[in-house]
Every structure is written in structure tokens, then in C-alpha cells.
């Protein structure tokens, strides 16, 4: 199993942080929020039969949890992200995973967790021009104005690294009526609209298909996956939700304390008697081919 991480300066993955709390937010994403999407990742990998020998390129890899999951299946993974802090966490995770007993070495005697950071997507290409078997964009789109368009440049750069007919997986939020978290995310839209800073918007039915069409991809199946958001308490929920980047426009339009207060208020219906927070959600994935 070989894992490689590269840096690519496009809007793939959680949007860049506002203010100067990038390290804190990256850790909140890695420690609180990222795991909420594990059922989505598992469903995609099962559907595509990701296994030993699969060459997988992950766009918007964040802090690397989805890459670790693919690597555990034996895949050779390469991660790409635009966020320095998230990428650093992913490198640390993959390097630690490679040092576990029983992990195989990569090509050329390099440890399987070796990371090769670069700012150019072209350096994500596999040696010898070997094409990728799977391309994934597992950071869901469809809840922040412009996030679908932001994925375009990453896809344009990645598709030439895959062979003809390679599956490309796009993921997004399900219908607002199926996502309890949508009610909380509306706070972002309402606050951001005060200064027209851009914030949450409801997911549209054809978000993923439109991205695929712009990239010249052909849809070849889709699915829906239940991904409930569960938190130990309201404070953890607020931190996790802020780490997604959905509330950045709201913070710019008001201030962080105001946003935190209104998120906490919106969470009240989902706080259980033991203080934990539970919000059922549905996410969608689209398989398209090059």
C-alpha cells in the first residue's frame, strides 16, 4: 500500500478558514466533524470495490480519514487538498499508520506512508504514467454558494490522470427535508445575507449532475447514505459545525460569538436528555465516468 499527499490550490475540501484560527479549526474538523461522513465513505468504497491494488486519487482529502479507510482496504492512495493545516494533519495520520506493525512498504523501498507534498497537481501523477482506477471528491458539495463550481478546476486537473471509463465519485448533501442539520445550517445563510457575504443554500437535486456535465463526465449510478451527526454535547457540535466552513460568511458578516450563540440555539431541538446532540442526515453520491 502506498500513500501520497500533494497540495493543490483549488477549492477542494473545506473552504479556507476565516480569521486566524486555522489550526484550531483543522483539528476540530479532524477530531469532531470528519468522522460523521464515515458511512458515506464506506458506501462509496463498497460500491466501487476499492481493495488491494486499487489506485485511488482523493480530491479534497481534508485531514485524511477517507484515505486511511481506503488504505486499510489495500488501496494505493494519493490525497490532494488546498488547506495547509488539514494537509499537515493528513500527513501525520498516514505516516503514523504506515509505522503500524504489518504495514507493507511502497515501491522503491519507501515506507507505505511516505508523503510527497507539492503545490502542483501534475506531481500527483503515478510513476510511469500509470492511470488511477478511482477518483473521489468525498467532501460533500451543495450547501455553500459556489462550492460546486469550486470543484471544477480540481476535476479538470485530475481527469487526465485517469484512464478512459474511470469512475469519478462526487458527493453532496441530500434534500433539506431529509437532513436535520439543514435547519442549523440556515443560520449561516440568514446571518451571511445581512452583508451578502455568501453562506448556506439548500442542496439542489441536480447539483452533482451539473458538476459532472461541466467536467465532461457521464453519470453511471448514484446512491443515498444515512450519515447522522452525533456529538458529545452542544459545545462539540458548535465546534464541529464551524469547522465545515459553511459558517464563514456568517462570521464575516457578524462575529464568531454571535454565530456560536445562534448555532447553539438552533441545536436545541436535537439535544437529548443526556446532553448529546443527534441529527439524522442523508447524503448523496454520484458515480460518473471519464
Descriptive account of the structure:
The chain has 290 residues and is α/β, with parallel strands linked by helices. It has one domain: Vaccinia Virus protein VP39 (Rossmann fold). Helix content is 36%, strand content 19%. The strands form two sheets. Strands 1-3-2-4-5-9-6 form a seven-stranded mixed β-sheet, sandwiched between helices. The longest helix has 15 residues. It is globular and about 55 Å long. The two termini are 25 Å apart.
Keywords:
290 residues; alpha/beta; Rossmann fold; seven-stranded mixed sheet; two-stranded antiparallel ribbon; 36% helix; globular; methyltransferase; Methyltransferase domain-containing protein
Residues in helix, %: 25-40%
**If you average the pLDDT, what whole number results?**
84
Structural class given helices, strands, pairing? alpha/beta
* Helix run count: 11
* Total beta strands: 9
Order of helices and strands: EHHEHEHEHHEHHEEHHHEE
- How far apart lie the N and C ends? 25 Å
Into which percentage range does the β-strand content fall? 15-25%
CATH architecture term: 3-Layer(aba) Sandwich
> What is the highest CATH level, the class?
Alpha Beta
Give the CA-based shape: globular
Radius of gyration: 18 Å
CATH-assigned homologous superfamily: Vaccinia Virus protein VP39
CATH topology: Rossmann fold
Low-confidence stretches: 9-20, 104-119
The number of domains: 1
Amino acid at each position: 500500500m502506498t500513500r501520497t499527499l500533494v497540495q493543490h490550490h483549488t477549492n477542494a475540501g473545506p473552504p479556507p478558514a476565516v480569521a486566524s484560527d486555522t489550526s484550531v479549526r483543522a483539528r476540530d474538523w479532524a477530531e469532531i466533524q470528519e468522522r460523521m461522513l464515515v458511512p458515506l465513505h464506506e458506501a462509496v468504497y463498497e460500491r466501487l470495490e476499492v481493495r488491494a491494488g486499487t489506485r485511488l486519487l482523493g480530491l479534497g482529502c481534508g485531514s485524511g480519514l477517507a484515505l486511511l479507510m481506503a488504505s486499510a482496504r489495500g488501496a494505493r492512495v494519493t490525497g490532494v487538498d488546498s488547506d495547509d493545516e488539514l494537509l499537515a494533519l493528513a500527513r501525520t495520520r498516514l505516516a503514523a499508520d504506515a509505522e503500524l506493525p504489518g504495514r507493507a512498504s511502497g515501491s522503491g523501498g519507501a515506507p507505505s506512508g511516505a508523503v510527497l507534498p507539492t503545490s502542483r497537481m501534475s506531481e500527483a501523477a503515478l510513476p510511469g504514467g500509470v492511470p488511477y482506477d478511482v477518483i473521489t471528491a468525498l467532501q460533500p458539495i451543495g450547501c455553500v454558494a459556489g462550492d460546486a463550481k469550486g470543484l471544477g478546476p480540481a476535476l479538470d486537473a485530475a481527469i487526465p490522470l485517469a484512464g478512459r471509463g474511470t469512475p469519478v465519485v462526487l458527493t453532496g448533501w441530500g434534500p433539506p427535508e431529509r437532513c436535520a442539520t439543514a435547519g442549523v445550517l440556515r443560520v449561516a445563510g440568514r446571518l451571511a445575507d445581512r452583508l451578502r457575504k455568501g453562506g448556506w443554500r439548500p442542496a439542489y437535486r441536480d447539483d452533482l449532475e451539473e458538476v459532472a456535465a461541466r467536467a465532461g463526465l457521464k453519470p453511471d449510478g448514484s446512491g443515498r447514505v444515512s450519515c447522522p451527526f452525533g456529538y458529545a454535547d452542544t459545545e462539540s457540535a458548535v465546534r464541529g459545525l464551524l469547522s465545515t466552513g459553511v459558517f464563514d460568511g456568517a462570521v464575516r458578516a457578524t462575529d464568531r460569538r454571535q454565530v456560536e450563540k445562534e448555532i447553539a440555539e438552533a441545536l436545541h431541538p436535537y439535544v437529548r436528555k443526556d446532553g448529546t446532540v443527534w441529527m439524522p442526515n442523508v447524503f448523496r453520491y454520484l458515480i460518473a465516468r471519464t
